[in-house]
């Protein structure tokens, strides 16, 4: 039987930081208010488009795997903030990398985008369609953020991560997954003014209005991720106490804590980095996985549970068995163009350009 081993990993975080205190300079909020409600302290603001973030993350993932662009059969790009809808953003990553042998596709399921992309790539490798793939989760949310809306402006940030998958005989990579969606509740988390539905409507020109019903999202998020985790554990015939590490979507610390209690898992086994980056939507869970590997939290053969939820309201959980190697084979020298501005300066520029 063929499996899809994760042999490379990389992330790309924009250098410009936007702190809670920065947000308090133009919103009615404070560091204490944001931290106590979300667990977030800061987030990143990108000075480049999402494909550039993704390409750097991919170069770092390839280096970690000891591979070149010629080894890539497929690029699956999960995001909500693609540079363009047509042509697709994955093709732009292919062009930047020079990965001319790779098929390219975009996946749009909001915050679960990176994980749904992992399912696509894993399935195509295991079925023999391709032998390798780059899986991307990346977002540049800041340009379309409603920076006047405290409920959402404090939550989101920009970033990217990528995984390199390749066919393997040993049982590694994704062992089980569960995907779903509460379509009837899709309107409780939506961005109005963004998409063809709003074409030629002057009131939305250059603007977006976020619908975000926090309490309802909280309930659906916990419910969806919990049932997805239960299904994955049942499919794989393992118990919760056999999980070595939980890497959940980092949308809100309260959601993470509630989910862990519901699953009756040890809080010490949960990886959390929400305080540094906030919610990077499709990038969030993959960035967290990459950091867990880099920080030595992932060991050879570890069982890793990765629950997520996003707009739609989509939900998922993946059970991954990590392979033998936890160290990068080499390091990439790929870097973003230099950024001369602070996160606050970049955000103020976005706000001014919308006026």
From TrEMBL:
It catalyses: malonyl-[ACP] + acetyl-CoA + H(+) = 3-oxobutanoyl-[ACP] + CO2 + CoA. Belongs to the thiolase-like superfamily. FabH family. Residues 233-322 form the Beta-ketoacyl-[acyl-carrier-protein] synthase III C-terminal domain. Its main location: cytoplasm. Pfam families: ACP_syn_III (PF08545), ACP_syn_III_C (PF08541). Keywords: Acyltransferase, Cytoplasm, Fatty acid biosynthesis, Fatty acid metabolism, Lipid biosynthesis, Lipid metabolism, Multifunctional enzyme, Transferase. Residues 250-254 are annotated as: ACP-binding. It comes from the Bacteria. Signal peptide: none annotated. NCBIfam families: fabH (TIGR00747), PRK09352.1 (NF006829). Its EC number is 2.3.1.180. Pathway: Lipid metabolism; fatty acid biosynthesis. The last Arg residue of the ACP-binding site is essential for the weak association between ACP/AcpP and FabH. Residues 105-183 form the Beta-ketoacyl-[acyl-carrier-protein] synthase III N-terminal domain. Homodimer. This is Beta-ketoacyl-[acyl-carrier-protein] synthase III. It is found in: Cytoplasm. The active site is at residues 111, 249, 279. Catalyzes the condensation reaction of fatty acid synthesis by the addition to an acyl acceptor of two carbons from malonyl-ACP. Catalyzes the first condensation reaction which initiates fatty acid synthesis and may therefore play a role in governing the total rate of fatty acid production. Possesses both acetoacetyl-ACP synthase and acetyl transacylase activities. Its substrate specificity determines the biosynthesis of branched-chain and/or straight-chain of fatty acids.
């Amino acid at each position: 039987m063929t499996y899809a081993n994760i042999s490379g990993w990389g992330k790309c975080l924009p250098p410009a930081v936007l702190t809670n205190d920065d947000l308090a300079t133009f919103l009615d909020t404070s560091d204490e208010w944001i931290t106590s409600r979300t667990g977030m302290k800061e987030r990143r603001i990108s000075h480049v488009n999402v494909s550039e973030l993704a390409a750097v993350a991919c170069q770092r993932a390839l280096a970690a795997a000891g591979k070149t662009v010629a080894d890539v059969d497929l690029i699956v790009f999960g995001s909500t903030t693609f540079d363009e809808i047509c042509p697709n953003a994955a093709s732009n990553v292919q062009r930047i990398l020079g990965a001319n042998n790779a098929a390219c596709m975009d996946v749009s399921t909001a915050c679960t985008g990176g994980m749904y992309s992992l399912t696509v790539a894993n399935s195509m490798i295991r079925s023999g369609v391709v032998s390798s793939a780059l899986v991307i989760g990346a977002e540049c949310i800041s340009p379309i953020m409603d920076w006047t809306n405290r409920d959402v402006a404090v939550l989101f940030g920009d970033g990217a991560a990528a995984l390199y998958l390749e066919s393997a005989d040993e049982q590694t990579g994704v062992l089980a997954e569960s995907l779903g969606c509460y379509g009837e509740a899709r309107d409780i988390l939506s961005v109005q003014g963004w998409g063809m539905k709003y074409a030629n409507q002057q009131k939305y020109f250059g603007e977006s209005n976020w619908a975000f019903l926090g309490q309802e999202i909280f309930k659906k998020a916990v419910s969806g991720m919990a049932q997805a985790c239960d299904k994955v554990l049942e499919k794989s015939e393992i118990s919760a106490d056999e999980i070595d590490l939980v890497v959940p979507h980092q949308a809100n610390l309260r959601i993470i804590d509630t989910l862990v209690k519901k699953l009756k898992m040890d809080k010490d086994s949960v990886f959390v980095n929400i305080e540094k980056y906030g919610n990077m939507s499709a990038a969030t869970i993959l960035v967290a996985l990459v950091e867990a590997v880099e920080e030595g939290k992932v060991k050879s053969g570890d069982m890793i549970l990765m629950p997520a939820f996003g707009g739609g309201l989509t939900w998922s959980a993946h059970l991954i068995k990590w392979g033998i190697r936890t160290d990068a084979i080499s390091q990439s020298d790929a870097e973003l163009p230099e950024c001369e501005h602070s996160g606050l300066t970049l955000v103020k520029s976005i706000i001014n350009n919308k006026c």
